[in-house]
Amino acid sequence: MNTSGDRLKTLLLECNLSPSDFAAQRQVTPQHVNNWFKRGVPLARLDEIAELLCVCSKWLRTGEGPKHPTPLPRLNAAPRIPGTEPADPSLLAAHTHEDIQLPFYSMQSRQLKPIDNRYLRLPAYALDALGVDPGLALCLSMPASNMSPLLPRGTTLAIDTGLTRIVEGELYALLHNGRLRIHSLSQRANGTLRLHSHDSDQHPTETYSPAQLKNQKLSVLGWVFWWGHLRNSRPY
Fold this sequence. Notes:
By secondary structure, the protein is an alpha+beta fold. The protein has 2 domains: 4-62, 434 Repressor (Amino-terminal Domain) (Orthogonal Bundle); 101-228, Ribbon (Umud Fragment, subunit A), CATH 2.10.109.10. Helices cover 27% and strands 28% of the residues. It has helices at residues 4-14, 19-26, 30-39, 43-52, 57-62, 89-94, 124-130, 210-215; strands at 99-108, 111-123, 137-141, 156-160, 171-176, 179-187, 193-196, 206-208, 218-228. It has a 7-stranded antiparallel beta sheet with strand order 3-4-9-5-6-7-8. Strand 5 (171-176) and strand 6 form a beta hairpin.
């Protein structure tokens, strides 16, 4: 791998993403992606794509240095039991570069169903740092434009279905009468749930009482812990 384009091509293979699928998800043309393969990733896009694919910007640009960022300390790690020894750091380092394949799902006939042979690959240490159980994580595509420009339609989202507790202001995937929705949430003391959109002008806040949540089959699927997308054009 001599160029950033070569490294990008290999990363897409590792993520089981075809160039055309990657282009469609990122809302760019396949020709853009092919140009990046041949000429290298544009400098203006390096940080963006490196963050998207969970690699170091310097490694993507030059091939030098660590491939993956240094993991953040795990904030929610369980306290160590007295009398036990912490794990050997050298053993932890040996697993730093392991990746986890998260399956993609889509809404089909009002149910979430897996998409065959489509995965997103994320570093195991990143999921561990967030306390995400890989067995409870899945990927979806942003279904609407209510969270634009933060999350344009089609943005790839990683969901932790093990976290459905409402933390005010966090992003969540919801199921609403067989429809997938993405919102930031807040909850009142009486159990009333409020759904907030980033584009609040076009999508005002919605409020649902506990009875409405039940009647409309509105439930929290999980916490959105990762997302990534590329801009579809350069600013002029």
